[in-house]
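Deliverable D5.2: sample structural annotation.
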Amino acid sequence: MKTRILKALAVSAVIGMSATSVSAQAAECIAPANPGGGWDFTCRQIGKIMFDIGAVDKPIQVTNMSGAGGGLAYNYVVTERGDDDNLIIAASSATSTRLAQNAYAGMTADQVRFVGAIGADPGVIVVGKDSPFQSLNDLIDSILADPGSVAFAGGSATGGFDHLKPLMLLQRAGFTDISKIKYISLDGGADAITQTIGGFTQAMTGDMSEVVGFLKSGDVRVLAVLTDERVPGFDSIPTAKEQGYDVVAVNWRGLYVPKDVSDDTFNMWAGRLQQVADSPEWAEAMAANGLAPFTKVGGDFQGYIDGVVEEVRELSKELGVIQ
């Protein structure tokens, strides 16, 4: 009898230790692209600030998982990590765009839970420092004269959010034959900007956070920012609207979690994300990287995503990107 009691206590102790180790496990953030892009920025900045302000008690591990414009990571989370409490995944407008266009092999927005967004990354149209294009009008005029003369590099899949930005601009200019516009899809903004700096493409379509370092080093010029107003800290860059093209395209930056986590876990991550949004550290990070405030956190964010998915689906049909 005494032996059985001792064995039971030993087993109970092991179970208790296992539970403790799981609960104390450091969280992981998957960035669905190579290092240096927008999703990588989201994981590393938000993860760092969560630890710095005490929202988590251990540094958050960042895993880069590029492929299929974020589809590889999305499929992995849905099929392999569907109930992982310690997993968060960087998301953006590119994520909702691809879901709207069925780019993730039939997967839908309701297969994960969107925790929230805490910043908007303004869309930009960028050229190399030695480009002959001095303004957005120069670039658009060149395309109108010879549609095949300009190739855009972007960090989204074909038909994705980066691809849609120049198409929306050209639509405003009266251009409708989008099949003639050259777009090179790459795994993340870092790869796209490198192609443009190297002269392999004539322009890059992406987000401000992806080009800030290259802008400060003088390797690129931003022809237009796709916002209602100029971005604080980058006041010399004109908006597309100022140049006659009424296009606003911002890329929200946020997180999703696996679908089968508990409501308590979802609310925990939403609370942590709100702590980051409210912190001076995040305000500094936004200012340094050209982000604008955009806070939608918690249970209503999925409804917002559903609306965005429907809007992008209709826009994509109008542009001819999908049927």
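Annotation notes: The mean pLDDT is 88. The beta strands are 28-31, 61-64, 87-92, 112-128, 151-154, 182-185, 203-207, 220-226, 250-258, 296-297.
The annotation will be released with the project's public dataset once the embargo ends.
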